[in-house]
Amino acid sequence: MVAVLDAPSLVALTALLSVGYQLIFFAITASFRFDKLTDFAGGTGFVVNALVTLVMSGGGHHARQVALSVMQIVWGLRLALFLLFRILKWGEDKRFDGMRDSLPKLAVFWSLQALWVFCVSLPVTLVNADARGLAGSIGIGAADFIGWALFAAGLVLEAVADQQKLAFKTASARAWCDVGVWQWSRHPNYFGEWLIWWGIFVSAASQLRGGEVVAAAASPLFIMALLLGLSGMPIQEQGWNKKYGRMAGFDEWKASTSPVVPLPPTVYRALPRVVKSVLLFEWPLYSAGFDQGSDARGRRSENGERRQR
């Protein structure tokens, strides 16, 4: 018989699970200099948290609890298996180029991954914990359907973007992906992920109260902060700038393509700079890393003059 835990104990358990599960894979990475399981560990960490909290919460497992748990499991499994396939196909994870021989750097990375799994899982954890006993008394309503629709749209967008980029990189010698949904966004997969976690939060918030809502909101906000300012866009954008900054067409693509929120290039290009910066996240740090002679506003021609847009 499975033990039933109260809400605080269940939240504490997911924290321990998040750390312990990632610690296993950290030990593998540190011992064997093997980093191909990194994203698999992250994605499956969400699966573990959802399964454990659903099973150990007791009660009747109401529709919202089951639905959100299944959503987290589906998202985690898809992400884990896709990224495992991709790293096995591509052969290396460049994020670890400066970490493989540094135990402190690896420890920091894996600590952040454990924090990511715990924080982003919070809406589902709190719904399953059901500290106020509301799961059975609050029926499925409009907020749930809105949240689930956002989740579905985000999951489709993220999966399509991932597959389009993988196919492009496999078949094409061109440098940056500008096909399919990548014509409208430089990071459409990230926007899909935002929709996923905001959708889960919207549904979860209909059952949560007070501080629980604030804690659950940490999930989508953490994802946005992580991708906008830490491990997502800054690393990718600066890497692209350094590698492709002198290639014809790269500046044009960046100037015409929204950073995250999908928009037609003609629409994005015509928007005022303040709108791009404040509402669409076109921030200066994404222009860093260009080699001398090229920047995010235009590429120098051979005679040294800057082409104006």
Keywords, please?
309 residues, disordered C terminus
Produce the secondary structure layout.
Blueprint: H1 7-32, H2 38-56, H3 63-90, H4 103-120, H5 122-129, H6 142-171, H7 188-205, H8 211-229, H9 233-244, H10 250-256, H11 265-270, H12 273-279, E1 294-295, E2 298-299
Antiparallel strand pairs: 1-2
State the helical fraction: 55-70%
Number of helices: 12
Assign the structural class, choosing from mainly alpha, mainly beta, alpha/beta, alpha+beta, or little secondary structure.
Answer: mainly alpha
Q: Main beta sheet, described?
A: 2 strands, antiparallel
Low-confidence stretches: 292-309
The whole-angstrom Rg is 21 Å
Strand content: under 5%
Q: Span from first to last CA?
A: 68 Å
Query: H/E series, N to C?
Result: HHHHHHHHHHHHEE
Tally of extended strands? 2
Global geometry: globular
Mean pLDDT: 87
Instruction: Give the spatial strand order of the biggest sheet.
Output: 1-2
Describe it.
It contains 12 helices and 2 strands. It is mainly alpha-helical and 309 residues long. Strands 1-2 form a two-stranded antiparallel ribbon. A hairpin with a 2-residue loop joins strand 1 (294-295) and strand 2. Helix 6 (142-171) packs antiparallel against helix 7. The model is unreliable at 292-309 (pLDDT under 50).
Brief summary:
This protein is mainly α. 64% of the residues lie in helices and 1% in strands.
